[in-house]
């Protein structure tokens, strides 16, 4: 039945094509076919790149404009001015102290080094001790500093890359991850790792989604949609991992993600929607319930960036301020980044990335059995699955090491 329906159409097509090519020799047909296929493929490659056609067009126009001498002179003079101001600012900030640019002939003593550090720390004139730079210094308290430095004194030589040598450090990481997952209402299969900061947490998540979307849905040209108020770490991830980043506007009154704009930006290549709780530039919270509903409707994962205030907002309800839900309690939220080194009051260089399920980071875990670098056979940082306790992870890592030693 279907056959006879399509048949007349196909017959017409056949007669048309044969008619067009009846006076061509076979070599001409072969050449014509090859050339048009190659042209089609390269046109496709030219149009569909990580960077949009518009943005590439703008850059090319700018590059060409710079070739016009008058414009080039104007741009160069502006750039020189900026460089000069920048240099002056740096010199002022360092209060005219010269830079040390080579290793000293004679090593400095303990006291000399401490003196030097004290001297450097005096540069700058922001009143950060009094809490005037909330986005840079989160909490200044001498008891806390004493605790942090005591811990560091004890543990500074450890290397979390080697959980077999430092199982206690591995346990610390597992506990931080599990406590954070519980705070953010992660289910029994939630999992995660610690990273060196919010940017790394976001990079890890974006790479995980890129690899997940590739292995699960065969998406080759991934795109992430996020409000303009999102942290630049996502743009960095886009550059590093070849993901197109689409910025959508925020509503001009509340500075929350414009959900309709996000909806319009969705394409078949969208691998992730992002919301911040709160964002860095304004401190406003996106409506995660709305973003997650969009994610559920289109089957797109949702990342909540709680890097800045995650460890504050999660306690708001207990403090008597009811907030709309924004964590794993909202169905559709698949990952959360929260910085221990911000309102978690840990020293700089630590953050947590959480996933609702291990299947998201799995395609991204580095575990190549064929590498010459034997130690890389163990995932370089294992992530911790829900109820599976640390000892099991350790056993897994331990077994890998055992195999390694055996081979
Ligand atoms: C701080 C921050 C990040 C990550 O920045 P790091 O300096 O790398 O920790 C990401 N998102 C938001 C909203 C942040 O405030």
UniProtKB/TrEMBL annotation:
Keywords annotated in UniProt: Lyase, Pyridoxal phosphate
Broad class of enzyme this protein falls into: lyase
Source superkingdom: Eukaryota
EC number, UniProt record: 4.1.2.27
Annotated SUPFAM superfamilies: PLP-dependent transferases
Cofactor(s) needed by this chain: pyridoxal 5'-phosphate
InterPro entries documented for this protein: GrpII_AminoAcid_Decarb (IPR050477), PyrdxlP-dep_de-COase (IPR002129), PyrdxlP-dep_Trfase (IPR015424), PyrdxlP-dep_Trfase_major (IPR015421)
UniProt protein name: sphinganine-1-phosphate aldolase
Species lineage: Eukaryota, Metazoa, Ecdysozoa, Arthropoda, Hexapoda
């Amino acid at each position: 039945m279907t056959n006879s329906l399509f048949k007349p159409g196909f017959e017409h097509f056949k007669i048309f094509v044969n008619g067009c090519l009846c006076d061509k020799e076979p070599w001409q047909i072969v050449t014509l076919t090859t050339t048009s296929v190659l042209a089609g493929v390269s046109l496709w490659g030219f149009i569909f790149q990580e960077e949009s056609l518009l943005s590439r067009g703008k850059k090319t126009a700018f590059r060409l404009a710079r070739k016009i001498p008058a414009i080039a002179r104007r741009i160069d003079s502006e750039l020189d001015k900026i460089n000069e101001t920048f240099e002056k600012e740096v010199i002022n900030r360092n209060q005219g102290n010269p830079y040390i640019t080579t290793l000293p002939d004679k090593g400095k003593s303990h006291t000399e080094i401490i003196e030097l550090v004290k001297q450097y720390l005096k540069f700058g004139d922001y009143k950060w001790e009094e809490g005037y730079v909330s986005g840079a210094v989160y909490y200044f308290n001498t008891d806390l500093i004493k605790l942090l430095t005591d811990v560091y004194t004890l543990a500074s030589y450890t290397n979390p890359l080697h959980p077999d040598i430092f199982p206690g450090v591995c346990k610390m990481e597992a506990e931080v991850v599990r406590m954070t997952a519980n705070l953010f209402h992660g289910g029994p299969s939630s999992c995660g790792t610690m990273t060196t900061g919010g940017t790394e947490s976001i990079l890890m998540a974006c790479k995980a989604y890129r690899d997940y979307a590739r292995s699960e849905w065969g998406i080759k040209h991934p795109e992430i949609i996020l409000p303009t108020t999102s942290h630049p770490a996502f743009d960095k991830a886009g550059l590093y991992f070849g993901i197109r980043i689409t910025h959508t506007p925020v509503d001009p009154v509340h500075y929350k993600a414009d959900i309709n704009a996000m909806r319009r930006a969705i394409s078949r290549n969208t691998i992730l929607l992002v919301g911040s709780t709160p964002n860095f530039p304004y401190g406003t919270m996106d409506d995660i319930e709305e973003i997650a509903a969009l994610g559920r409707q289109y089957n797109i994962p949702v990342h909540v960036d709680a890097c800045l205030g995650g460890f504050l907002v999660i306690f708001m309800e207990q403090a008597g301020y009811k907030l709309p839900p924004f964590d794993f309690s909202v169905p559709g939220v698949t990952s959360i980044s929260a910085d221990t080194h911000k309102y978690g009051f840990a020293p700089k260089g630590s953050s947590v990335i959480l996933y609702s399920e291990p299947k998201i980071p799995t395609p991204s875990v580095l575990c190549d059995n064929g590498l010459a670098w034997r130690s890389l056979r163990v995932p370089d940082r294992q992530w911790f699955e829900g109820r599976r306790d640390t000892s099991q992870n350790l056993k897994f890592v331990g077994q890998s090491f055992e195999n390694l030693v055996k081979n």
